[in-house]
Amino acid sequence: MTAWNATLLRGWHPVAEAHRLRDRPMRVTIFGRAVVLARLPSGGLLALDDRCPHRHVPLSDGQLVGETLQCKYHGWTFGADGRCTAMPGMCPGAAMPAVQVNAWQVFEHDGLIWLSARAPSEAAPAALPVFLNRLPAGSRRFLWSTLWQARPADALENFLDPLHTHLVHPGLVRNHGARQPITVTVTQSADGLQVDYAGQAQQSGLLYRLFESPRTMERAHFAIAAPATAQLEYRYANGSSLYFTLHFTPEDEMRTRLFATLHVENRWAPAWAVRWFVWPFLYRVAEQDRRIVEAQAANSVRFGRQDGISTELDLVRPMLDAVWMPGGNPVEASERVMQMWL
User: Residue 264's closest CA among 135, 110, 109, 172?
Assistant: First the structure.
């Protein structure tokens, strides 16, 4: 894990859909490390390195015993803090050896299980960013996950980059021949990034024509407290809002676990209607993005990883490099306003 920027390790990352964590332990991967998750009878969560320190058998093959997780090989048992609480075969009254498994900080939010690599003894990471905590209760219309063979930072940039939409999603998101001049305001702070787009109340693609109406705001969010997460926020003249949130959790340097949610506020959009009529279009967009970032990843390996050439049009890359690159430069507060043909 030392190859990763410490800023990433301090943040929160979703690793699993909460409904999939039931009465058996589950293995997930983050930063190249296997982690076992378990939902305890009390309702609490356990997250430990998926390795019994005795003979290295995966703890995810074990079973819950009360509020502890028992290894299937010799029965060593561990609590949520990673401390060994039982070693079957020891004589009564014998002193228990001090054995510890690395524990991860863990909690549940918006249908996802979130981890931080900070040790439980350290101060908790910052709370989730405001743009995640403010999502209205009951407004989520879908939660989807998949795996991309791509670099997490590149996948994250893809989601936040509007300029690829004309060519990667032609006619679906935007039309190359219908570009318009807009004003972009990029606000950067020590906590994250916000990008506001003004001057394009209507979008030129089929998705807008089928499912949207005139916009009053288009905004992108990124925050260091959840450094693998970004959100696109759309507000409309009729008082409704849409929030597309994507999480790009790094399983390792070249594999990205993607979690996607759509939240809808003040608009008729029942989950069944979204699933039957909207989701096929969104899935097509996601597949187009997957193919382009996987091609990017494969070609970067083929030619040897080199820094790409960036211009002022690459709005979010400086912030992403500061967070995702080992030894990235500290983030400085700034605001810039520019024109772009979008």
Answer: 135
Which residues are 37's β-sheet partners? Answer: 26, 47
Residue 175 pLDDT more than 80? yes
Q: What percent of the chain has pLDDT over 90?
A: 77
Helices (H), the chain: 6-10, 130-133, 152-160, 165-168, 206-211, 271-273, 279-303, 317-324
pTM, 2 dp: 0.93
Tell me the one-letter amino acid at 45. L
199: left (phi over 0), alpha (psi -120 to 50) or beta: left
CA nearest to 297, candidates 244, 259, 250, 261: 250
Q: How many CA atoms lie within 13 A of 272 on its CB side?
A: 0
| Rounded alpha-carbon distances, angstroms, from residue 98 to 59, 67, 206 | 18, 19, 62
pLDDT, residue 126, reads 65
| DSSP states of 24-92 | S-EEEEETTEEEEEEE-TTS-EEEEES--TTT---GGGSEEETTEEE-TTT--EE-TTSBEEE-TTPPT
